[in-house]
Write a sequence for this structure.
């Protein structure tokens, strides 16, 4: 293992530049720790001329990432272009077909094509490593695939989009509404080119799909995730939730149920003092529950040059050290296609509704819930606005279909002014 | 890699029994994930007859752990006996000498003999894996050695003794004193046979010594750790700290300084709302700060059958999958002997003192601090007890020698009734 490990890096944005910097600046450390010299043979990016604050003159250049991926002097293709399709996928496939290992931060590509790419990689005895694809600098893929490998996992959950968490925690801290903070994020450059990837929960759901596959030995199933973004979370809900000891997080949850795999990415209430509840700003957190380990929580920066490059480099070091693993922790051919189970497991819910302020209105709501078999844990009537009173209800555990039934029957009472809001409360 | 991996397990206490259970009950999962069958060839323990709730009849038996460690049908010697010397060390050395890999949970043995054992292992091309030795179920050794391998680590710290954290958080929650909770822990079986290993900070310091070595590429140096237990933490200090927004934790900190490696395990104040501050009961937490990743926090159960067995099994799975690493993340021969640096880096301090309640008393204390170049961030005078007033001071950052100088000069003013208490405040 004294031969150098030779990289071809495609994509020199924030993360790619960060990777080049670490390789240049920490060369001695990397060699000491991996026993090999880690070298860059060539790079590829959209613009060759752009000043990235780091010299590329020592490296070859390829305009075409596919050409880079298949160079003879490239042992590992480092894909940091992003995008589920197009060049990223073509170059990844080319590298794997040539039997080269791939390190990528591309959650979208793996969420959409993970199974096919894993099969291709394993047929060529090649690795795909993707620590940077999930939760930035947090070594969660490694923890789940390796450290916790002897656990039957019961649940994986996490806050995995820093922008959403930033918006939600800033709404609470500043009392500003969603739109104001969305605009602030746009100005700060916290949003993807398509902001719906962030605020619509898509990006976080891509990450959840990868964690699910490892945790449960199932084929990556992005389409099976129930996704709801944070666009409809109001300051009112954040405030009411806080009053009752909760915070609202865009929370991804994956768990095995008797009916299949339940995967959801949606706003949830979590206890304010829980590890997830205290999470501020752009920080990410992943919680893993296993039969032996009980609960392990990992927390760290979810994005940024340094943290993401740290994760990419962790994968590169693993390859340099000779670690070889199936892409999703077990051979791709053994991954199961689990049935999609949505909202199977009961949970308590937070309900907010605007009620006509008349005698008997609350009783009608209470009996709609009671008729559906839902009992009330806590209820608070808040400010009146003319003839309308805001009522907040926290239910005991209920199945989602029963709740939907109750909401429909509430609607028909004529005392509920607008569509009630229902947000799941996730126990920790 | 289709041959079974054959284990010899020495020590069938809580952890050993937990390992046997996982191997028996999760055989299919383990094979799917590692590509091999994981089998137990033989075991060894003090009593063969004891009912451990798990059948041992399928396995060979050795009274002598050294004989177990060197059996031809043992690929991996799993050392779960504990103790820095004696059988554990003899059997570990015998296994390594025979070129067998070792998985151990033995922090004391590695803290005292880590360098020699690593050299022996590497000379025989054998592995020593010890995830379970530090922070129970948390995969921190893996995160630090592998996931964060490209980081120049600046600081590692953590709460790594669940019993101490249990005592400290219960003192705050119940208002009971240290002695009452010590007795409670004794009854609950939370204490080591020698309780000073727990409450004296020794056990946690063993763990810190291992993390330091990996983080900084230094030879394990347990003797270089400044250790202070929790025996002198009073309910008063916990209460005063809470009033000022802090909690007291038995915190291990290791950091590289200009003068060498600073390692300490001692009660510290941390911000009550920080990840370390909110940590309750027996839960452990490790914080790693690296040049690229910024800060990563791992949290999980620090002890117990399931979590510790999970960590042991993670190591066994790694070996089954063919992962081979130097014991402390780089070849033992390249580990440096770093000079011991104690309290080099300045920090704010919490001071509690009993002052004679006379005009000018506080001024004398303030000028003792000022003369030593220490400025006061916050000061509170608390309850009087006859002629004595309790004064709490939070200083700005100061070097420990300056503080010691100030304490000495306070002592000579004659207004300080007893030895002032000084506790470091660790920033997060």
């Amino acid at each position: 293992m004294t031969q150098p490990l030779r990289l071809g890096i495609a994509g020199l944005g924030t993360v790619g530049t960060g990777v080049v910097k670490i390789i240049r600046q920490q060369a001695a450390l990397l060699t000491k720790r991996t026993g090999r010299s880690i070298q860059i043979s060539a790079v590829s990016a959209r613009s060759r001329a752009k000043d990235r604050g780091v010299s590329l003159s020592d490296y070859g250049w390829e305009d075409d990432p596919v050409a880079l991926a298949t160079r003879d002097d490239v042992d590992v293709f480092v894909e940091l272009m992003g995008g589920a399709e197009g060049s990223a996928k073509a170059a990844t496939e080319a590298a794997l077909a040539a039997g080269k290992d791939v390190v990528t931060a591309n959650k979208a590509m793996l969420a959409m094509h993970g199974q096919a790419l894993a099969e291709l990689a394993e047929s060529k005895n090649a690795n795909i490593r993707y620590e940077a694809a999930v939760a930035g600098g947090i070594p969660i893929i490694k923890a789940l695939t390796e450290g916790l490998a002897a656990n039957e996992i019961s649940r994986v959950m996490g806050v995995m989009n820093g922008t959403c968490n930033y918006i939600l925690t800033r709404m609470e801290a500043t009392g500003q509404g969603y739109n104001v903070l969305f605009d602030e994020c746009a100005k700060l450059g916290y949003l993807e080119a398509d902001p719906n990837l962030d605020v619509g929960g898509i990006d976080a759901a891509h990450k959840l799909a990868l964690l699910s596959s490892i945790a449960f030995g199932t084929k990556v199933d992005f389409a099976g995730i129930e996704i709801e973004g944070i666009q409809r979370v109001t300051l009112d809900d954040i405030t009411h939730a806080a009053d009752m000891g909760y915070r609202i997080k865009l929370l991804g949850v994956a768990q095995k149920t008797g009916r299949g795999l339940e995967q959801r990415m949606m706003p949830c209430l979590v206890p304010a003092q829980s590890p997830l509840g205290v999470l501020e700003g752009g920080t990410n957190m992943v919680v893993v529950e296993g039969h032996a380990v009980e609960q392990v929580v990992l927390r760290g920066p979810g994005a940024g040059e340094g943290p993401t490059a740290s994760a990419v480099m962790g994968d590169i070091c693993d390859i340099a050290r000779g670690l070889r693993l199936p892409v999703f922790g077990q051979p791709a051919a053994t991954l199961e296609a689990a049935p999609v189970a949505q909202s199977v497991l009961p949970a308590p819910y937070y309900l907010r509704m605007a009620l006509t302020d008349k005698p008997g209105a609350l009783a009608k709501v209470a009996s709609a819930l009671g008729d559906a078999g839902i009992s009330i844990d806590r209820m608070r009537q808040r400010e009146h606005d003319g003839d309308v009173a805001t009522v907040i209800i926290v239910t005991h555990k209920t199945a989602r279909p029963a709740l939907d039934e109750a909401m429909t029957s509430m609607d028909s009472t004529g005392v509920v002014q607008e569509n009630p809001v229902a947000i799941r409360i996730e126990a920790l």
